[in-house]
Amino acid sequence: MVEKQIDVFNPHLNEDSGIKDHKKSYVEQKGISQLKPAITYIHTNYSEKLKLNELAKICNMSESSFCALFKKVYSKSAYQYVLSYRISMASIDLTEGFKKLETVAIDNGFPTLSCFVRKFKDEMKAPQRQWAENHAQRPSS
Q1: What whole-number distance in Å separates Cα of residue 9 and Cα of residue 126?
Q2: Is residue 4 part of a domain?
Q3: φ, ψ of residue 127 in degrees (nearest 5)
Q4: Which DSSP category does 82 fall into?
Q5: Are 66 and 109 in the same domain?
Q6: Is 125 found in the same domain as 107?
Q7: Total domain count for the chain?
Q8: pLDDT of 48-104, one tens digit each?
Q9: Which residue in 82, 128, 73, 71 sits closest to 102, CA to CA?
Q10: 3-state SS of 13-63?
Q11: Is position 91 within any domain?
């Protein structure tokens, strides 16, 4: 079984993390540090309903300051980050091929199967069944 891990504390290690320049400014370094509690919370609780005010509170910030800093550091909104993270975790489940599609959707924080199907296709540019077939883990011979 594949362990689900993504290094979110160093956005440079993730190609699509949003920070384009490999030399982070002081503000970005500080921002990553300030946002670390929210990122940890997202990664631990991504399958649950997450609220923006809770993420901001975890970082001891106002919602507006949290949103602005998050967008500056990750070049995407907190909502889009959570959605991308959920889809990346769901894609791991899909490649393993052990779970029903409805279970994958619910286990990864999507309220309905139709929501998951729509968001997955938007993010991954392919329907989940096709994507899963193309990326399925094959047994070694």
Answers
A1: 28
A2: no
A3: -60, 150
A4: H
A5: no
A6: yes
A7: 2
A8: 999 999 999 999 999 999 999 999 999 999 999 999 999 999 999 888 878 899 999
A9: 128
A10: HCCCCCCCCCCCCHHHHHHHHHHHHHHHHHHHHCCCCCCHHHHHHHCCCCH
A11: yes
Placement of tokens 């670390």 in the chain: 36
Report yes or no on 1 lying in a domain.
no
Domain that holds residue 117: 83-135
Q: Which residue bears the tokens 């923006």?
A: 52
Task: Report the residue count for the chain.
Answer: 141
Structure tokens at 137: 């883990």
22 and 69 co-located in one domain: yes
Whole-structure pTM over 0.70, yes or no?
yes
Could you read off the pLDDT of 88-136 as tens digits, one per residue?
999 998 888 788 999 999 999 999 999 999 999 999 888 877 887 777 7
Which CATH number covers residue 127? 1.10.10.60
The residues, any chain, with a CB within 8 Å of residue 3's CB and separated by 6 or more, are none
Buried b (16+ CB within 10 A) or exposed e, 96-115: eeeeebeebbbebbbeebee
Helix, strand or coil, per DSSP, at residue 78 = helix
